[in-house]
Amino acid sequence: APEAVIEEAGKISRESVVRVAGPVKAIAKAPGGRRLLAREFRRRGAEVAPALVYRRGRPVVAPDELARHLPSRGVVVTTVTSGEVLDNLVHMVDARTLARLRAAPLVAAGERVAGLGRRAGFRDVSAARGPDPESLVREIASRLRDHRDSGAGQ
User: Fold this and answer.
1) With contact defined as beta carbons under 8 Å apart, do 76 and 100 qualify?
2) How far, in Å, CA of 91 to CA of 101, rounded?
3) Residue 14 in this model has a pLDDT that exceeds 50
4) Looking at residue 19, what is its pLDDT?
5) What is the per-residue pLDDT across 83-129, written as a single tens digit (0 to 9) for each?
6) Cα–Cα distance between 55 and 30 in angstroms, integer?
7) Of 21, 52, 59, 130, which has the maximum CB count within 10 A?
8) Would you tell me the crossing angle of helices 111-119 and 83-92 to the nearest 10 degrees?
9) What angle do CA 123, 125, 131 make, to 5 degrees?
10) Rounded to 5 degrees, what angle do the CA atoms 108, 111, 117 make?
11) pLDDT beyond 70 at 40
């Protein structure tokens, strides 16, 4: 059977998974994760049994830890792959670093996460075509070219 293509906001495309009523569908996830996917399966009539296989958490670091690793000059492109990653970033850095990151390009793994970035105060947000590494790298490269060509971040 063809693999399901899971798009933004939990939409599922491929005919083989459109009709999901009947057997229980298991979703391996962390607590709080994959809500949109589970909701979409339920909407289509499936019983969903989440399998909590790992636990996420916010790393414990000093508020200025990230700032020490950022270059003092040039453009910084931040990449976020989920709303939880974005939330962790916003709460893990000091105010000065957050202001710098909010003014720099933010590449998100899809439109939903890009919208969360905008709502979190990031001003230069773009969405990669997908959450896969190739799509993210292409969007990061594009943003770096944009900044190089405009002379920004010099």
Assistant:
1) yes
2) 12
3) no
4) 52
5) 888 998 999 888 988 999 999 899 999 999 999 999 999 999 999 99
6) 5
7) 130
8) 30
9) 155
10) 50
11) yes
| 107 neighbors 132 (Cβ within 8 angstroms) | no
pLDDT at 50: 64
Q: For the chain, first and last CA: distance in Å?
A: 51
* Calpha distance 153→44 (Å, rounded): 48
Residue 70 and residue 1: Cα distance in Å, rounded? Answer: 46
Closest alpha carbon to 38 in 52, 58, 55, 54 = 52
**Residue 20: per-residue pLDDT:** 52
pLDDT in tens, 23-32: 554 555 556 6
Q: Which pair of tokens denotes residue 106?
A: 């933010």
Q: Which residue, 28, 33, 72, 27, is CA-closest to 46?
A: 27
